[in-house]
Specification:
ATP-binding; alpha/beta; 2 domains; 14% strand; six-stranded mixed beta sheet; Rossmann fold; single chain
């Protein structure tokens, strides 16, 4: 493009010096070329964006289906996925054809415009030679410069649609690159140990028109257990996301002690939080790699075996072929659900967090695995500020405070016994989970302990 522009400017300057009238006639064609190139370029860009979106959707669905092959087979959904795949490929083919059509139109139109300009200039020059206002030598010199212009003109004409198409293809990447990166290096350094975690009047929405949390407030005293219960979709997991600072609240504040966590060094803040979720995140690699993931410093085998022992994971890791160096496979596919959960708990022990967050950590486990994981969690919760999300109320009845979240608000809080007595929906949850006992027979926190 740069070379073509230089050739274009240089040739036009020489042509103006030679005969400005002939040059003016030639320049009249430029708006025509622009009028041809711009709509084609705009359309090419839109098609490229659509094609890229379709390709992204196809890739995402293909990856999902391949990763869930067992579900597809057990659901006998091969024909459904085959048909879906054919439709996606047909859509990609359709956009590919449209791209090819616009590419094939742009070149001939530009060439035709250039040839029209050449013929027009030649006819005008021949007329002036016939009238004696221009010499034959000047006209042929002018035409030679004009021929030199055709190459740069054609290159620029092809460049505009190509640039538009590339812009469309990179649109999603550019949007990602424009996202502001988290600031993980500035802010105050604090020690969360012995500090009160308080959430005051927090509002939050992923989309402005769909509020998730409204006026949520709670406190977690040091070394206490605070639990969150309530219907699915009420906003409990969103609270954890705000505490981890994956998002910032729209209004209100989250403080540790007297300091807003928005002013705390992000890396140092997250290092003091341990999260164990329902689907324990285990990465492809070794047991050792997963235990030490994201942690600074070197850890001895003795330290790793110790945390595995505390998480009731030592026995099954010892039986593995390579012990700590055993490969667990992609997403920990070589481990059972209970084993993955205990590895995640061992990682939390090694992290030694000041604040522990448990997001339905035993919800998807069988009875035996749940018992082992619950034992490990009880150890892990000792002498830490612990926040728990649970649908199984039996796991939170002994919490110091239970906050009932529904429709994004706190509709009640207190101990298990207090909520059974004073909160109708919590009481209904208890009755449903414990077999609908009579009021006097409903389990208390002390009894379940």
């Amino acid at each position: 493009m740069v070379t073509s522009l230089l050739q274009l400017v240089g040739a036009i300057l020489l042509m103006v010096l030679m005969d400005w009238k002939m040059t003016l006639l030639m320049i009249i064609v430029v708006p025509v070329v622009v009028l041809i190139a711009l709509p084609i370029g705009t359309r090419s860009r839109n098609i490229a964006i659509s094609r890229q979106d379709e390709l992204a959707n196809f890739s995402g669905e293909a990856n999902e289906v391949i990763s869930e092959t067992r579900l597809m087979k057990s659901s006998t959904a091969e024909n459904v996925e085959r048909e879906s795949g054919h439709q996606k490929v047909d859509h990609l083919y359709y956009f590919g054809i449209k791209e090819a059509v616009y590419d094939s139109i742009a070149g001939p139109l530009m060439t035709m415009a250039m040839m029209g300009m050449f013929v027009g200039v030649l006819a005008y020059g021949a007329n002036r030679v016939a009238n004696g206002t221009m010499t034959m030598g000047t006209m042929f010199s002018f035409l030679m410069y004009l021929v030199q212009l055709m190459g740069p003109f054609t290159t620029l004409g092809q460049f505009i649609p190509s640039l538009a198409k590339a812009s469309g293809s990179t649109n999603r990447i550019q949007n990602l690159l424009d996202v502001v990166e988290e600031d993980r290096t500035t802010g105050k350094t604090i020690d969360a140990h012995g500090q009160v975690l308080s959430v005051d009047d927090v509002d939050f929405a992923y989309n402005p028109d769909e509020p998730i949390l409204h006026d949520v407030s709670f406190q977690a005293e040091p070394n206490t257990v605070v639990a969150f219960a309530g219907p699915s979709g009420g906003g409990k997991s969103t609270i954890f996301s705000l505490l981890e600072r994956f998002y910032e609240p729209a209004s209100g504040s989250i403080k540790i002690g007297d300091i807003n966590i928005a002013n705390v060094n992000l890396t140092q803040w997250r290092q003091q939080i341990g999260l164990v979720g329902q689907d324990a995140a285990v990465l492809a690699g070794t047991i050792r790699y997963n235990l030490t993931y994201g942690l600074d410093g070197d850890f001895t085998d003795e330290q790793l075996w110790h945390v595995l022992d505390m998480a009731y994971a030592k026995d099954f890791v010892e039986k593995m072929s390579d012990g700590l160096n055993t490969q667990v496979g992609e997403r920990g596919v070589k481990l059972s659900g209970g084993q993955r959960q205990r590895i995640a708990i061992a990682r939390a022990f090694l992290r030694d967090p000041q604040i522990l967050m448990l997001d339905e950590a035993t919800a998807s486990l069988d009875a035996e695995s749940e018992m082992m994981v619950q034992k490990a969690l009880n150890k892990l919760m000792s002498n830490r500020t612990t926040l728990i999300i649970a649908h199984r109320l039996s796991t939170i009845v002994n919490a110091d405070q239970i906050y009932f979240i529904e429709n994004g608000t706190v509709s009640g809080h207190g101990t298990h016994d207090y909520l059974v007595e004073h909160h109708a929906l919590y009481r209904e949850y208890v009755e449903n989970q414990f077999g609908g006992e009579k009021k006097d027979e409903l389990p208390s926190g002390a009894e379940l302990a």
